[in-house]
Amino acid sequence: MKNLTFEVNPNHEIITKLNSLRKKDSKLASLMAKQILDNTMIGAGMLSDPKPLVDRIYKIMAHAMDSAEAVAGEQRSQPHREIEDKNTNTESVLKQKP
Predict the structure, then answer these.
(1) Which of these, 1, 56, 3, lies nearest to 33 by C-alpha position?
(2) Is 8 helix (H, G, I), strand (E, B) or coil?
(3) What domains appear along the chain, each with residue ranges and CATH number?
(4) Closest C-alpha among 25, 32, 29, 33 to residue 6
(5) Is residue 93 left, alpha or beta, with left meaning phi > 0 and alpha meaning psi from -120 to 50?
(6) What are the tens digits of pLDDT across the range 15-59?
(7) DSSP designation for 4
(8) DSSP letters along 17-62, please?
């Protein structure tokens, strides 16, 4: 496979949040950064082995569920708030350079 370069948009919301997360939880930030790269590889049809990606997704999901349980415990007395689902376009996060 030829060498590829991916350009990161440092102003994209996901990248700025990843940078903030890096300062608080470097292990989770590392998982997320690898996931962003693999998501881009899937989009380009270049991911040859999906197993590490799937294993990483499970780790990220477990972390999210642990965090959600902790938040739910803190917010039991507060009214339910809907989480906005933003349609994030991978191409706006990472751009493939030839």
Answers:
(1) 56
(2) strand
(3) 8-72 (1.20.120.790)
(4) 33
(5) alpha
(6) 999 999 999 999 999 999 999 999 988 988 888 999 999 999 999
(7) -
(8) HHHHHHHH-HHHHHHHHHHHHHHHHHHTT--S--HHHHHHHHHHHH
Percent helix, strand and coil across the chain, each rounded to 5? 60, 10, 35
Residue found under tokens 């708030």: 81
Instruction: Write the CA distances from 64 to 21, 57, 71, 87, 95, integer angstroms.
Output: 13, 10, 10, 19, 27
Amino acid at 37: L
- The residue assigned the tokens 């039991």 is 76
Tokens of 76: 């039991």
| β-strand partners of 7 | 95
